[in-house]
UniProtKB/TrEMBL annotation:
Residues annotated as domain HAMP: 196-249
Places the protein is found: Cell membrane
Annotated EC: 2.7.13.3
UniProt organism field: Nonomuraea spiralis
Listed name of the protein: histidine kinase
Histidine kinase domain ranges (all copies): 257-462
Gene3D superfamilies: 1.10.287.130, 6.10.340.10, Histidine kinase-like ATPase, C-terminal domain (3.30.565.10)
UniProt-recorded Gene Ontology molecular function terms: kinase activity
Database matches in SMART domains: HAMP, HATPase_c, HisKA
Length: 466
């Protein structure tokens, strides 16, 4: 009383769900079904072929026996002497009486009542009686032979053979069915072995991937030998893990540097505001001006951080043909009068890229060069080694070899840079390199006779086929 039927709670048999099969189990099952279907079709074809071939052989033997006996007959035929497996031979007259027969067929009724017509003198058949079936050939002598031997009376010669066991029973089908099952089972076992061996590296990769966490991205999946799809998958997964580890490490370093760079001005801002609240003699308007200046610095740093993040994580955006010589001329023309900027640009050096982003790179390089130059900045645009190369050199103090990579890290500012531009964020060169690499190029510092030489390399677009 008060109980519920299993069907009402969804807990009965109807709510049971089959367990999901693994990939290996599904592939093995599919192989088993497919091999069973194919082997069954082959078995049926073999059964029909063997039965047809056995019938043809038996009828060929019985037909040969009738024609040989007819060829040796006289007006008073004698019982034939059988020398082959065909031992049932009878000569039957027009009234259906056995005139003469072989030893094995004597005393038996006519093998069959089938009587071939004169225009179709050889016919085959199967006659069954008393649980025994006989395959026979009924041959009627030619009209000339009937006139010579029996005065034109129609006679029929029968030659028969007890139906072979393979034709009279289901033994052949049982043998073929056993073979089909055995071959299907063998193929399924081989397929299961090969599938398991093929998927074993995938399982090893899955197990290793399950061990990888955000706190430890140094592990890599095992790479099987060879160059098949699984090996390529493992190598691709390891490359992806490498890029992910690098990105996470960059993010950690970036977060650490951001917190450091923002903490210092934030601490100064808080101290300035607390001072204005604590000491009445502090000019509040001056404190607010200082706070506003610090807020502007915050805003500039945050905007540059967002710009760097966008460049690192997104494609360059809309690409178009950009002539670097023209772009350099526009950026140089927009600079304030002051230091001399010399431009040496080859014509028609063109790349595919985002014009705004490439312009930002050139702006950062020119600002940096003007900040450190003494008298002159030199800009050169050329083709070199199959690339478009833009070099910006100033005649300043230069960058030590040990610092040539550090200056491209976010918030890294050398002592000279801090002295010349105390309010700088140290993100300009990092953003410039990120933009260059997003365009499949690079940005670095190379040797020069005097001062640093920043070199931007970008790939040239493929030439159209001629």
């Amino acid at each position: 009383m008060g109980g519920k039927d299993p069907g009402e709670t969804g807990e009965g048999v109807g709510s049971l769900r089959p367990l999901p099969l693994s990939v290996q189990a599904r592939l093995t099952l599919a192989t088993a079904v497919l091999s069973l279907i194919v082997c069954t079709a082959i078995g049926i074809a073999l059964d029909l072929l063997i039965r047809d071939r056995l019938r043809q052989d038996v009828f060929a033997d019985t037909q040969r026996a009738t024609t040989e006996w007819i060829g040796s007959m006289t007006a008073t035929p004698s019982p034939p002497v059988t020398t082959s497996e065909v031992d049932l031979l009878q000569l039957v007259d027009a009234h259906g009486h056995v005139v003469v027969a072989s030893r094995a067929a004597s005393g038996r009724p006519p093998i069959s009542t089938l009587r071939p017509a004169s225009d179709d003198r050889i016919q085959h058949g199967v006659a069954c009686a008393d649980g025994e079936c006989v395959m026979f050939t009924a041959t009627r002598p030619s009209p000339q032979e009937e006139r010579l031997l029996w005065g034109g009376a129609a006679h029929v010669v029968y030659a028969g053979l007890v139906e072979p066991p393979l034709l009279g029973t289901r033994r052949l089908e049982l043998l073929l069915a056993s073979g089909v099952l055995a071959v299907s089972a063998l193929l399924t076992w081989i397929a299961a072995f090969l599938i398991g061996r093929t998927l074993r590296p995938v399982e090893a990769m899955r197990a290793r991937m399950a061990e990888i966490t955000v706190t430890d991205l140094s592990k890599r999946v095992p790479e099987p030998p060879g160059d098949d799809a699984v090996a390529q998958l493992a190598r691709t997964a390891n490359k992806t893990l490498g890029r992910l580890e690098e990105a996470v490490e960059q993010q950690r370093n970036f977060s650490s540097m951001v917190s450091h760079e923002l903490r210092t001005p934030l601490t100064g801002l808080r101290a300035r505001l607390e001072e204005a609240l604590t000491y009445p003699d502090v000019d509040p308007r001056a404190a607010l001006r200082d706070a506003l200046s610090t807020a502007d610095r915050f805003q500039a740093i945050i905007e540059e951080m967002l710009s760097l993040a966008r460049v690192r994580t997104a494609a360059p955006g809309h690409r178009e043909p950009v002539r670097l010589g023209t772009l350099v001329g526009e950026e140089v023309a927009s600079r304030r009068a002051g230091l001399l900027i010399r431009v040496d640009a080859e014509e028609d050096v063109e790349v595919l890229g985002n014009r705004v982003q490439l312009g930002e790179v050139l702006t950062n390089l020119l600002v940096n060069a003007q900040r450190h130059a003494r008298t002159v900045v030199e800009v050169r645009v050329e083709r070199r080694d199959g690339q478009a190369v833009v070099s910006v050199r100033d005649d300043g103090a230069g960058v030590a070899p040990a610092d040539r990579e550090r200056v491209f890290e976010p918030f890294v500012r050398l002592a000279e840079g801090r002295r010349r531009d105390p309010e700088g964020s140290g993100l300009g060169l990092a953003i410039s390199r990120a933009i260059a690499r997003a365009h499949q190029g690079d940005l670095g510092i190379e040797d020069s006779p005097q001062g640093p030489r920043f070199v931007l390399r970008l790939p040239l677009p493929p030439r159209p086929p001629t």
